[in-house]
Amino acid sequence: MVKTETVELIRISVRGIVQGVGFRPFVYQLASSHNLTGWVCNTSEDVKIEVEGEREELEQFLAHLKVKAPPLAQIENISATLAPLVGYKQFEIRRSQALEGKYQLVSPDIATCDACRHEFLTPGDRRYRYPFTNCTNCGPRFTIIEDIPYDRPKTTMRHFQMCPQCQKEYDDPLDRRFHAQPNACPQCGPSLELVDKLGTPIQSLDVLTSASQLLEQGKILAIKGLGGFLLACDATNEAAIGLLRQRKRRPYKPLAIMVATLEEVYRHCYLSPEEEKLLASPQCPIVLLRWKADSFISAVVAPNLKYLGVMLPYTPLHHVLLRETGFPLVMTSGNLSEEPICRDNDEALRRLRDIADYFLLHNRDIYSRYDDSVAMVELGKVQITRRARGYAPYPIHLPFAAKQVLACGAELKNSFCITRDEYAFLSQHIGDLENLETLEHFENTIDLYQKLFRIKPEIIAYDLHPDYLSTKYALKTAEEQGLPAVGIQHHHAHIVSCMVENGVQQPVIGVAFDGTGYGTDGHIWGGEFMVADWRSFERKGHLEYMPLPGGAAAIQKPYRIAIGYLLRLCGEEALRQNINLISQADDGEISLIERQIKQGINCPLTSSCGRLFDAISALLGIRGKIDYEGQAAVELEMIACEDEVAGYPFTIEDEQGIKIISLKELVGAILFDLRRGQSAAKISAKFHATIAQMVTKMCQRLSGEIGITTVALSGGVFQNRLLLRKTVGHLEARGFTVLTHRQVPSGDGGISLGQAIIANFADKNL
Prior knowledge:
Blueprint lengths: L6 E11 L5 H11 L3 E6 L4 E8 H13 L6 E10 L7 E3 L20 H7 L43 H8 L20 E5 L10 H10 L4 E4 L4 E6 L3 H11 L8 E2 L3 H7 E2 L2 H7 L6 E6 L15 E5 L4 H10 L3 E5 L11 H7 L6 E5 L11 E5 L2 E6 L9 E12 L9 E10 L9 H17 L6 E5 L5 H13 L3 E4 L1 H12 L6 E11 L5 E9 L4 E7 L2 E2 L4 H5 L1 H20 L1 H4 L6 H11 L5 E2 L2 H11 L11 H9 L11 E5 L2 E5 L1 H12 L4 H27 L3 E5 L6 H13 L3 E3 L11 H11 L5
Parallel strand pairs: 2-5, 7-14, 9-12, 11-15, 17-19, 19-20, 21-28, 23-27, 28-29
Antiparallel strand pairs: 1-3, 1-4, 2-3, 6-14, 7-8, 8-13, 9-13, 10-11, 11-12, 15-16, 17-18, 21-22, 22-23, 24-25, 26-27
Helix pairs in contact: 5-9, 13-23, 15-17, 15-18, 15-20, 18-19, 20-21, 21-22
């Protein structure tokens, strides 16, 4: 009997990150290997495929489409339907199609792949030492895209016409540079230029060699990268780092470093397998690593810290420069303190000329500013503390079809979030919305996301704090566009952001610990226990309200917070006995603080756990004034003996159905330890243990009353690694399921995700 073959045609739609990652040449080769005919093309919605051939080959083609996809492809959905035969004679890659109102996921920028690295590090290769080498598996994506579909004319590479060799690669479906939109070489692509702070070109036979020599001389360079400028200097040169700190107005805040190879990272830091994998990943974030005592990285890179922010080179320029210099480099954002990262050459020369001695420029335009991401590995899991390069704008997946919501985030470490369909697009790190430059960056990036993902918001969500620039923007925009505006309580948003990324919708016990959040009673919250779901929350408990003398001014001077705590909890005599604390105050300041507390003048009440950490840090003489947000708490964590398990006493009181954690016993016990000469390291460890015990005891009580055994931990305080380890350990040992952050920051950088979800469910009639 003669076997007959059945010929069929299948129409396929593939959604996800499938553009700019070598997906079409992969499809071309896969179809050819199965003797199929038809075509593939990009659209602004998906990758569309029509394949015609024998049924068995079609079935294998579909099976391999996902499991053998290129490494950077992230397939969300594959749909396939039978269609009438056409009689295609060959398989081809067709031109992209723009579809009205349709959108496609956009790839983040990706660190240099092994194949490209081999090329630009190999003498004789036509791309040897070329700083803009890339292919479909690596290089710029989001930072150069102006619109979709992702084609060269819609990127900032449109100004560079490919030479015949690059064009041949670009046109060859079997080449890994097929339709690599940033494809270029030294003959036709972007180029470097070295200039002084006045913009005068420095004559050089090799720009990277000259830049390396300047770094060896202790100079500070502003280097244009993927998403903006980085300020670089020798990470082993204390004088150069000190000068950078002075000029950047950043006396203590830790600086990140970049080292050439993974082997060199081991010279300076301890690495777990998970940390090594994260460092070398395509995202290539800054990873917070335990610092070795014998490292020759200057201690002034990260003063008073046990952890060092380390990243590997993620562009060819970095790879060549690091190998040329032969020593680690400080690589920190190219900006003045609190300003957005510089993006354009002229802007950098204007804003950074008082910081950098020289500028390493290039002529490939950056369309969207993009800071380095920061991450850590704790409890065996990756946790993002700043989400930007390598991660944004890849979405958080939602288990429901969302409305089109714009959530404007908080004031500090701002990000915004927009939702559509099953996606929540959390923006890259924007920064602190405390100046017009950052607000402009915020507004421009919102416009870009709305254009890329074809979103026209139906609802705008905002933080309840009336003075936040993000809140003012939200209310103004909602009024101008006639849209409903939904105010979201700060800590509810924190908890829901944690729930969503863990895929949990049922009510949880939410523990939200941070520095500042506007409460529904008009006070400053930040040490909160609540029962929460995606729609609503009920405050069940909090840390005792304490005075914040001087309001926001006290945050910069934690000794004022400590004085307020002592006066309120232990009286004037206890304050007089703490000479170290009194000595930090100016003449007459203590009397002023006393009057503020007694009369309630410019002395808001706060339940903030972050402020409690600040107060204890100042009380122990660790940090009375801060240079950066969280410094007092961070340095308190750094000195702790990590093997301490005993805690201090505390009580939980019930006031009209709300459980209040009283702080008097805790602070009194710390004062007793100070008087008997206990070390600050020991006291810090006992304090951390106490906070973990507070959380556990409160959750046990609440669980006993309401029956919930899932706890979500959120807020910036839980970026404290010691506290997180202790808290999770205590809770899990008592049978709780504990949710922590992984994909989005636990601090205010992740709050907009929670805002967007709550707004989606705030009113079923919206």
